[in-house]
Amino acid sequence: MPDYDVIVVGGGIAGVCSAVAAKRMGVSVLLLEKDMALGGVLTNALVNPMMTFHSPLRQIAGAIAQEIVDRLVKIKGSYGHIKDPIGFVKTITPFEPEKLKTVLINMLHQENVDYLFGCLVSDVKTKNGTVTQIEVATMQKKINLNGKIYIDSTGDGNFCIKAGAPYVEGNNDRKRCQPMTLIMKLSRVNKKEIISYIQTNPEQFTLANSPDFSYLAVSGFFDHMKKLEKYNVRFKRDRLLFFEVPFREDEVFMNTTRYPGYAADPMELTRAQSCASLDIWNFLEFLNNEIPGFESAKLEQVGCTIGIRETSHIIGDYQLTIKDLLETRDFQDKIAIGAYPVDLHSPNSSGLKTIKIPYPGEYQIPLRSLFPQGLNNVLLSGRNISADHLAFSAIRTSPLAASIGLAAGICAAIAVRENCNIRDVRYQELQGEIKRMGGIL
Ligand SMILES: Cc1cc2nc3c(=O)[nH]c(=O)nc-3n(C[C@H](O)[C@H](O)[C@H](O)COP(=O)(O)OP(=O)(O)OC[C@H]3O[C@@H](n4cnc5c(N)ncnc54)[C@H](O)[C@@H]3O)c2cc1C
């Protein structure tokens, strides 16, 4: 294998945006993904919809993230951004996961980005804080690869942890991570019956003002959920949460199950995934028997992997805090904007803790939160930037992960081009390049 200017580890939405951005800046790029698809949890765990591309005031994610949505719309893989019927955020962006895989592969092909599936970065060699070589486990043997700059878009910072960066587990306590969720796609759902039930029982749902039901997004059936216990499932939840599959009116993504655990521990991950797999059939029986509109619902697909919300947080040069978000703090070195509120799934109860960001509902991500302490040539990208537990529960969603990915890719390319340390990249130059590529600051 040749050496590369930039090696991106992880092919989720953040990793793809980093790889494309770096390549468009003219450097050579290799992307490594341990699974067999691009998109990370958006494709492998059936997470849907993307939210949110808008604050109450304006669009806050653009550039490659918007290009992905435009490409999806073109091939009937998304309706684009639509008003959130639940009213939690300004807009949501539902999409068809198989079409997202197609769009992301096509983007890498068009940009001539080299990428490899089935490649787990299993070890990272460093000298005086500089990553000198990485070891990649493939099915038969381990290979060594060299890059000048590395981008950790693994979702949980496992590249940086292998390189020796400091980190904390969960909320400084591995028992207090947000729970995992196995998402399933169901067919033969009666949309008309569900809408009619919502319209006659609005107090049983969280709804936007004058909701538009042309697209079905539901958070509720609160009283019905009290009967879940009778069905011997291993999770607790106070509501059903589901979203219509675009262009398939009788299908929904059901995002409701919850399993506690520290997913970086293989024993806890296995327990959560096994419980979730075993619960599917009892949960389906509950839906068929108890929920209006689900009498004939059938299981169509289950995420290849349980969705992992939270494991560890890398300590960066700057750790973004909940105070920064709630005070809508200005950072000179801002590189991305988020607008998703705090949405903390409780590890031990059935509920949610949500906190709205004061108007205009936006917060800034500083470049320094992408620099893992003690490492000279590694950038964090996506949901694994340095943030405390509560700030993380806001910044963790996909449009912002994509915007951070864009910035990480450009920053890496500038460092290569100018042959400088990542910390010597001038944030003004980076901000200029972000805007030139259509990013929003
Ligand atoms: C249950 C659940 C529900 C969610 N709901 C929503 C929602 O409704 N809307 C929304 O916008 N967001 C939601 N999110 C959050 C959001 O989807 C993700 O946080 C976001 O997509 C993160 O993107 P990412 O690229 O940073 O990471 P990921 O999507 O996690 O991608 C990381 C990639 O890195 C790969 N990888 C990891 N380690 C290695 C390694 N060592 N070597 C090689 N490859 C590696 C992984 O296989 C993966 O493909 C949800 C998340 C979960 C889990």
UniProtKB/TrEMBL annotation:
Chain coiled-coil ranges? none
Q: Which Pfam families match?
A: FAD_oxidored
Q: Enumerate the GO terms in the molecular function aspect.
A: 4 iron, 4 sulfur cluster binding; metal ion binding; oxidoreductase activity
Do the record's keywords include Metal-binding? yes
Q: Which UniProt keywords apply?
A: 4Fe-4S, Iron, Iron-sulfur, Metal-binding, Oxidoreductase
UniProt entry tagged with the keyword Iron-sulfur: yes
Q: Which InterPro entries match?
A: FAD/NAD-bd_sf, HdrA-like
What name goes with this protein?
FAD dependent oxidoreductase
What is the originating organism of this protein? Pseudothermotoga lettingae (strain ATCC BAA-301 / DSM 14385 / NBRC 107922 / TMO)
